[in-house]
């Protein structure tokens, strides 16, 4: 940094090809291209450019998060992915993970003589279905720790559902002698000398931060140098404390906001029946399929269909009845429809009169770019607009006007939920994500006509008995079995 000139270093095939002085600003610039150009066996294991870029973005995010006081930028194929001005940790978190977090972060800042912890956690309403936005750093090094993640989840307790994961970016500072980093080749898994103390401290720090916003029981967090007060995390959450926390205006605001979101999302499902179109089937199979549906209508009484608990559909015949799970059934119908779409019969796109724009975190923008060709076949027409922004030119007919951004964000979130399923192709993950996202949910009331339409489409599927994930769509009960239950 003190030299007048920098050094240009070019390495090819593990050999230094060029080394010379160069005029440049302070800092480091690294460019990579044609990886494994001379090792075909290794090159064949590389995935698509977009998929490899996502891995680079993941690593870039971890490094940039650790050093908010340093400027970072990342470009791919001449297009800028990140431009991160130096600033505070909060600014860096928002730059990397998305502007929607700007007013939804809770600061964590606790210090003792044993260790310090600082960073941010997301408010409960930011919780997602995937663990993507969760980061631990120990002495400024990124780590993965299921043990400490459990501490954070315990701190949130009933504030988020069991299948949701809150955001956190937490930096732990302690004596390096208290940490063993040589337990994993990548150094991403470490071992603390006293894991229980670190666990208790993380849990208490997060609880204390949430308590500042009256969304968690207040704790006494006056810790002495020896952390003798850490047993405060074991103090019972009494009914008095629960009532006090629940009575706060901010707590009610969170509750009302969550209820409003729930009502809005479920109200969209009223239009689920508009989503149906005839399934694409070969002409020579159409007659047999229609015959199969007609046989089902004769075997079961479609004129007398019953819905239980707005979740199950009962369809009876003279031998017994079928108990159908409406969400699973609709998932199967939609999955087959989407599979037909990507294999030839594209879903019609409803053009937007006033195209909406959607701004995403850089990692999500890279993922969406990778999915654009398949999404077009499925009725979503989006165009990149630069700076991680996309213009929504059209969506399928079932997506209500004004809900385009939410629909796309949910698709991405569901897709990331399948990210660890290596046995699935990218297209398969997308099909399953869309089917799960758009299926009618349990708790939605259906008319007799809607139930009959759903069942007709279900029995027209190639595999009507199970979803793509293997969950049953219906169970069969015989009349004789029912009589036996009553001793008849």
| Rg, alpha carbons | 27 Å
Based on DSSP secondary structure assignment, what is the total number of beta strands?
18
Task: Say what the CATH topology of the largest domain is.
Answer: Ribosomal Protein S8, Chain: A, domain 1
Mean pLDDT: 81
Strand composition percent: 15-25%
Please count the helical segments.
14
The count of domains is 3
In spatial order, strands of the major sheet run: 5-6-9-7-8
Form type: globular
What would you give as the CATH superfamily of the largest domain? Answer: MutL, C-terminal domain, regulatory subdomain
User: Architecture of the largest domain in CATH?
Assistant: 2-Layer Sandwich
The CATH class designation of the largest domain is Alpha Beta
Question: How much helical structure, as a percent, in the residues?
Answer: 25-40%
User: Main β-sheet: number of strands, strand sense, barrel status?
Assistant: 5 strands, mixed
**Terminal-residue CA separation:** 90 Å
Low-confidence stretches: 217-237, 248-290
Structural class: alpha+beta
Q: Would you mind describing this structure in some detail?
A:
The chain is α+β, with helices and mostly antiparallel strands. It folds into three domains: 6-84, no CATH class; 104-247, Ribosomal Protein S5, domain 2, CATH 3.30.230; 273-477, MutL, C-terminal domain, regulatory subdomain (Ribosomal Protein S8, Chain: A, domain 1, 2-Layer Sandwich), CATH 3.30.1370.100. The protein has 14 helices and 18 strands. The strands form six sheets. The protein has a five-stranded mixed sheet, with helices on both faces. The chain has a four-stranded antiparallel sheet with strand order 12-13-14-18. A three-stranded antiparallel sheet has the order 15-17-16, with helices on one face.
């Amino acid at each position: 940094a003190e030299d007048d000139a920098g050094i240009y270093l070019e390495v090819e095939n593990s050999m230094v090809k060029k080394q010379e002085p160069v005029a440049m600003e302070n800092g480091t610039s690294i460019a990579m291209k044609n990886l494994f150009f001379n090792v075909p066996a290794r090159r064949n294991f590389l995935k698509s450019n977009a998929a490899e870029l996502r891995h680079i973005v993941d690593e870039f995010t971890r490094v940039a998060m650790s050093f908010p006081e340093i400027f970072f930028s990342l470009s791919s194929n001449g297009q800028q992915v990140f431009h991160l001005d130096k600033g505070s940790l909060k600014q860096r978190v928002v730059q990397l993970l998305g502007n929607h977090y700007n007013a939804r972060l809770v600061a964590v800042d606790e210090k003792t003589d044993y260790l310090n912890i600082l960073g941010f956690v997301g408010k409960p309403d930011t919780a997602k279905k995937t663990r993507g936005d969760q980061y631990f750093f120990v002495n400024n090094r990124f780590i993965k720790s299921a043990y400490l993640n459990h501490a954070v989840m315990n701190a949130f307790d009933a504030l988020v559902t069991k299948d949701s994961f809150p955001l956190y970016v937490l930096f732990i500072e302690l004596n390096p002698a208290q940490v063993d980093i040589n337990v994993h080749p990548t150094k991403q898994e470490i071992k603390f000398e006293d894991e229980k103390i670190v666990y208790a401290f993380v849990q208490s720090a997060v609880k204390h931060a949430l308590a500042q916003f009256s969304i968690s029981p207040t704790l006494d967090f006056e810790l002495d140098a020896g952390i003798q007060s850490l047993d405060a995390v074991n103090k019972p959450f009494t009914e008095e404390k629960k009532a006090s926390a629940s009575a706060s205006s901010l707590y009610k605001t969170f509750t009302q906001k969550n209820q409003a979101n729930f009502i809005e999302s479920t109200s969209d499902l009223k239009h689920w029946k508009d989503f149906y179109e005839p399934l694409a089937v070969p002409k020579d199979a159409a007659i047999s399929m229609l015959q199969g549906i007609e046989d089902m209508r004769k075997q079961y009484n479609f004129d007398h269909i019953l819905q239980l608990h707005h979740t199950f559909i009962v369809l009876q015949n003279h031998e017994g009845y079928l108990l159908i799970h409406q969400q699973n059934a609709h998932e199967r119908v939609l999955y087959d429809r989407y599979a037909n779409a990507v294999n030839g019969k594209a879903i019609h796109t409803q053009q937007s009169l006033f195209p909406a724009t959607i701004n995403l975190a850089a990692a999500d923008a890279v993922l969406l770019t990778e999915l654009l060709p398949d999404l077009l076949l499925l009725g979503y027409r989006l165009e990149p607009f630069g700076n991680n922004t996309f213009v929504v030119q059209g969506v399928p007919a079932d997506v209500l006007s004004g809900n385009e951004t939410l629909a796309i964000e949910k698709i991405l979130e569901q897709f990331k939920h399948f990210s660890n399923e290596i046995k699935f192709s990218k297209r398969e993950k997308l099909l399953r994500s869309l089917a799960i996202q758009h299926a009618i949910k349990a708790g939605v009331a259906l008319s007799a006509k809607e139930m009959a339409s759903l069942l007709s489409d279900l029995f027209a599927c190639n595999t009507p008995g199970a979803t793509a994930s293997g969950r049953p769509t219906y169970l069969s009960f015989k009349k004789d079995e029912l009589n036996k239950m009553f001793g008849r």
